[in-house]
Structure to design on (244 residues):
């Protein structure tokens, strides 16, 4: 039975929505994703041609979610075309508000979660949790979140399988970095001052707990491993991501 790969919010400071730690549970035909600390004031990561001066309103959040999906879709469509492959975008991007409102392979998704579900080929996210993270961390997080989840969809399309969860998760971090870095270099995405610092701090906070076995189901990698994977993709595109 498909099991969703989960994006969970783990507060580093009690009662404070924190920096997000991407966490996904690997399984056949399933879904993927972050967790916890006090975050800096949000900044605006604007799609090219848009006004970067925004606020942390629901309208801006909705626009950023749409931009992140659109830029990710365009990026992977171009990559597939360059490789002579047909590309199909994800079927749906689904916001939800209640636990179990959206199911992946018969298993309801929980709150404080985002996931790619291969059983239905969709990305779903707890909209209240994601909006709280967006306001406290900044919109760079939204582009990273969608980039990481979309990477799991690409892994499925390419038939990529790994023996251990950590291998899929670090690869997804690298692919998310490539999507953001390449899109910025192409001009389809504009990072504002402070966005990279936000991403760096977030990645430092999302590593597995000390003592987590790297071979354990659900392992994602240490903070250093995850930061390195994202940075490699951001700086060097897909070359270090081993997606061939």
């Amino acid at each position: 039975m498909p099991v969703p790969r989960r994006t969970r919010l783990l507060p580093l400071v009690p009662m404070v929505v924190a920096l997000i730690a991407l966490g996904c549970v690997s399984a056949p035909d399933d879904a993927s994703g972050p967790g916890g600390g006090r975050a800096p004031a949000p900044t605006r990561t604007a799609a090219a041609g848009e006004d970067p001066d925004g606020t942390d309103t629901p309208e801006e959040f909705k626009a950023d979610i749409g931009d992140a999906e659109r830029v990710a879709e365009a990026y992977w469509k171009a990559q597939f075309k360059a490789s002579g492959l047909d590309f199909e975008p994800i079927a749906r991007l689904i916001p939800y508000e209640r636990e179990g409102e959206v199911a992946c392979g018969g298993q309801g998704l929980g709150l404080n979660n985002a996931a790619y579900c291969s059983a239905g080929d969709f990305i779903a996210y707890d909209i209240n949790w994601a909006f709280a993270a967006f306001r406290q961390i900044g919109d760079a997080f939204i582009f990273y979140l969608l980039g990481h989840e979309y990477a799991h969809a690409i892994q499925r399309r390419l038939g990529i399988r790994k023996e251990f969860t950590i291998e899929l998760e670090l690869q997804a971090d690298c692919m998310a970095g490539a999507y953001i870095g390449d899109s910025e270099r192409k001009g389809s995405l504009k990072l504002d001052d402070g966005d990279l610092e936000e991403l760096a701090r977030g990645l430092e906070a999302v590593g597995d707990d000390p003592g987590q076995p790297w071979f354990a189901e659900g392992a994602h990698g240490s903070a250093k491993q995850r930061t390195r994977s994202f940075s490699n993709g951001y700086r060097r595109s897909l070359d270090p991501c081993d997606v061939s």
